[in-house]
Amino acid sequence: MVVLYLSLMVMLPLAAVVAESTSGGLSAFWDSVTGAQSLAALKLTVICSLIVVAINAVFGTIIAWVLVRDDFPGKGAVNAVIDLPFALPTIVAGLTLLTLYGSESPFGINIAFTRVAIVVALCFITLPFVVRAVQPLLMEMDREMEEAATSLGAGGFTVFRRIIFPNLVPGIIAGILLAFARALGEYGSVILISGNIPFDTEVSSVFIRSQIESGNVSGAASVSVVLLAISLALLIGVSLFARSGVHGEKRGVFARIFNRLLSRGGGVGP
Amino acid sequence: MTPTKPAKWGLRSLALGYLGLLLLAPVGMIFYKTFEHGLGPPIEAMTSPDAVHAIYLTLLMVAIAVPLNTLFGIGCALLLVRHQWKGNAVLDGIINLPFAISPIVVGLSLFLLYGNDGWFGPTLSEWGVQVLFSTPGMVLASVFVSLPFVVREVVPVLQEIGTEQEQAASTLGANGWQTFWRVTLPAIRWGVAYGVVLTTARVLGEFGAVTIVSGSISGKTETLPLFVAKAFEQFNEEAAYAGAIVLALLALTTLLLMSIGGRKTKAQASGPIPITGDVPISTSNAKEGS
Amino acid sequence: MGIAVEGARKRFGDFQALDNVSIDVPDGSLTALLGPSGSGKSTLLRAIAGLETLDAGQVVINGQDATATPAQKREVGFVFQHYAAFKHMTVFGNVAFGLKIRKWDKAKISDRVHELLRLVQLDGLAERYPDQLSGGQRQRMALARALAVEPQVLLLDEPFGALDAKVRKDLRTWLRRLHDEMHVTTIFVTHDQEEAMDVAEQLVVMNEGRVEQSGTADDLYDHPANEFVMSFVGEVNRLGEHFVRPHDMEVVLDPDERTEEAMVQRIVALGFEIRVEFVLGDGTEVWAQLTRSELQKLELREGQIVHLRPGQTKSFNGDGSSPDRQGASTPSGGQGGDDAEVSAAV
Q1: Contact B173 C138 (CB under 8 A)
Q2: For residue A242, is it within any domain?
Q3: Which of A38, C28, C59, C77 can bridge C151 by disulfide, Cβ–Cβ 3.0-4.6 Å?
């Protein structure tokens, strides 16, 4: 039953995409993918996603640290708000960002229809990943380890770099991988704010949509297969990393964090 | 690590500043924009026939996709955790797929299956079943994107509770079905509830996949997120903001339920609260007992 | 009658948990399965309950072949080490579970549950949830739950393992008394030899998936079948091929032909009992168990050179390097164990 449901709901549709992408032969597939416009969109998507995960790796770690080790009034509320991007429909996210950072911005910051806008939108929707991956690791971390380091003469920054940070690495990596997968496929939050200008601010998912609308379904399917392949590679990489373990004892931690992240509602947004 | 005061303040303001600019300010802004001219305009916008139908359709998606994925989720989690077989690794991987796939690709895949030139489309339309640009297609899209949530929530809870309670039930004479209803299901109920909340949130807000398969026909195949997008594109800002507020409020409710559910599942997973100071029992009384 | 296991084998992957195990548990007895972790004792217990299926062999409960009977039809009461309490049910609900499954009527269930809760001294706590109980209380609830269905046999898997020492001791005494009243055939698993000797009438010592020896506590202590049993049941010193109990080590100040020179390394006072640690000329470390008055008589100091006269020793190789002699200090002398040879030489 379970397998049947999964096949009907997930596998069959995906098979249709793969079949359609190669319906004109492999060369047609290749031409669609390497077409100037689709290549520009792919490049933009990947570069923006890389920038975004880098930003959120840094800020996510800082936010997690502040949420675990710092104490201030309203911390509980801030902690709850972190999940907002998981809960908020992406079209609403896009709309809110456009309202604040668009032409009518009360701050006078107008980034609408620029590449910066794409980065901001993707930062918004992928914010929780690293925070939620790092937070439990910080909470479980043995404070005595840090105290031992301090007693051995390590200063604050050294303790962070040599003791805390290495223990957070599995969480950060798990968060980055999932955030990257999510950013690659994002559609709803980008569509309003990016302006969708071909060769400039058109990301892959928007490009696929425009191809469907202009009737070039197999072209759309070809680019989809590329996105699918990247997602699949990420997922397989993640599970290989979690299972065989590059990081020795850290691999258990990684698997656990990864599972927790997925269960928190990760993945590609509405 | 106990950093110095300035360092602590620096980190705190950095974290809160980022959150403020990225999350709170935009969401606050949309509330301001909606209610700028009072309660009248947003209420009016949300009571138009198209808006009402969009809300109805969104709720219909929830009413169909959530129960389906809940049933599937519990069954699949049991299969993954309680039955060790070779297909588990593959099954586990496939379940994560909807998390990693662009919603646009999901939409396209359904389009290719059920469209006029699709694999099943022509046959189904011969039978008079229209999937694409109507409710069934939108349900399929919603099911696809929200499929993993219940599984992902229930799997760790099932692992956590272990099999001892189930074994205890079987030594007490319970068969498989009785054990499931009386022991397993009550033990995983908070995990299931949390999964249902996440599934609901996802279905409520789904945009990319539905946008492709629905055709976005006002008053017919338009869910609330589609309504918001279309209103905005047609410069009907009032309706767009009002719709966004409805969705944002639903999201905030979800968030509230999430933090409650998260606490419940955590409390459940952490097991019994150890009570120190065991009461010694008087061994002499045992005799009189029976 | 009682429980019999014949030729049980069970393998988990590469690990042979049970290797041709046969045991016989008399009707109404209280038997301990004793062994280190990984010895197969829990697997054997779970196989009797039907929670594991055997690769080979059979389980007979009260004369009926139960090998193919599923757990829920075996009518066994099973108590788990970590209680396996149904966390979402009250104490009442937990104890009533088996009766509800058997579709008893409500009034009868209530009577039976309260009777059992009185028996395990939890009658005031019926409406509590397991989370609100202490470990000892939870374990008694689990016991009441297992007994409620009037099982043919009661199986307990390290029932006191998760409790602290004091509670453990209380529950031990209490379990024995309970058994004296109920006379239900009971098997419990433990890795604690003192617990096994304290509670059980019959002990089955297991190691590496095999039964090493079974018998009463005295049998095992006085006539261990092999080196493993000797060192697992009770303390032991090893002197070359020979084994000697610490209380059979006599400390004397003047040497004779049966003594060996030793230096007092450390004197540990454990209340009435004194543990004196020695090092022999060849570097072997041994210890002797003395009473307080013996120590005072000898006036031992750390660093002192004394002489040790081992009393009854045992060797299990059969090649007894020394003639069969009784040590002078051996009180009554014992007959040799099954395979053991009694000698008194160093």
Answers
A1: no
A2: yes
A3: C77
Q: How many residues does chain A have?
A: 270
- Cα angle at C198 between C195 and C204, to 5 degrees? 70
Q: Beginning with the edge strand found earlier in the chain, give each strand of the sheet holding C56-61 in spatial order.
A: C15-25, C3-12, C56-61, C64-65
Measure the CA–CA gap between C145 and A62, rounded to whole angstroms. Answer: 51
DSSP annotation of B23? I
pLDDT per residue of chain A (270 residues) written in tens, 0 to 9: 888 888 888 888 888 888 888 888 888 888 888 888 889 999 999 999 999 999 999 999 999 989 998 888 888 888 888 888 888 899 999 998 888 888 877 777 888 888 999 999 999 999 998 998 888 888 888 777 788 887 877 777 788 888 888 888 888 888 898 899 889 989 989 988 888 888 888 899 999 999 988 888 888 999 999 999 998 888 877 777 666 544 444 555 666 666 666 655 443 333
- C98-114 per-position pLDDT tens digit: 999 999 999 999 999 99
Number of structural domains (chain A) is: 1
**Chain C residues 74-93 within an 8 A CB cutoff of chain B:** 74-78, 80, 82, 84-89
Q: Which domain holds residue A113?
A: 37-262
| Domain chopping of chain B, boundaries | 40-266
ipTM given for this complex: 0.85
Per the CB < 8 A criterion, the answer to whether C162 and C180 are in contact is: no
Q: CA A40, A41, A43 angle in degrees (round to 5)?
A: 65
Closest to A142 in 3D by CA, of A161, A123, A164: A164
**Residue B46 CB: number of other CB atoms within 10 A?**
19
Neighbours of A145 (CB within 10 A): 13
Closest-CA distance, A198 to chain B, in angstroms, reads 17
Beta-sheet pairing, C260-270 with C249-252: unpaired
For residue A144, is it within any domain? yes
Contact A13, B112 (CB under 8 A): yes
Evaluate whether residue A30 is within a structural domain: no
Model confidence over C3-56: pLDDT tens digits? 999 999 999 989 999 999 999 999 999 999 999 998 999 999 999 999 999 999
Place of tokens 């990684």: A254
CB interface of C with B, residues 148-207, below 8 Å: 149, 163-164, 166-167, 170-171, 173-174, 177-178, 181-182
* pLDDT, average across residues B203-226: 87
Write down the pLDDT at residue B144.
Answer: 92
Query: Would you place residue B274 in the very low, low, confident or very high pLDDT band (cuts 50, 70, 90)?
Result: very low
Residues A135 and A63: their CA atoms lie apart, in Å, by 9
Per-residue pLDDT tens over the stretch B233-254: 888 888 899 999 999 888 888 8
Match 């031990």 to its residue by tokens. C172
Find how far residue C192's CA is from the centre of its chain: 5
Question: According to the model, what pLDDT value does residue B284 have?
Answer: 38
Q: How far apart are the first and last CA of chain A?
A: 27
B85: Cα separation from own chain's centroid: 28
Q: Which residues pair with C290 in a beta bridge?
A: C274
Strands C273-280 and C260-270: antiparallel
Q: Do A90 and B211 touch (CB under 8 A)?
A: no
Q: Which amino acid is at A42?
A: L
Query: Which CATH architecture is the domain B40-266 placed in?
Result: Orthogonal Bundle (1.10)
Q: What are phi and psi of A261, to 5 degrees?
A: -65, -45
- Length, in residues, of chain C: 346
Q: B156 to chain C, minimum CA–CA distance in Å?
A: 17
Q: What is the DSSP string of C183-227?
A: --EEEEEES-HHHHHHH-SEEEEEETTEEEEEE-HHHHHHS-SSH
HEC per residue, B51-113: HHHHHHHHHHHHHHHHHHHHHHHHHHHHHHHHCCCCCHHHHHHHHHHHHHCCHHHHHHHHHHH
* Per-residue pLDDT at C320 exceeds 50: no
What's the burial of B71, exposed, middle or buried (CB within 10 Å: 0-12/13-18/19+)?
Answer: middle
Residue A130 is part of a domain; what is its CATH number?
1.10.3720.10
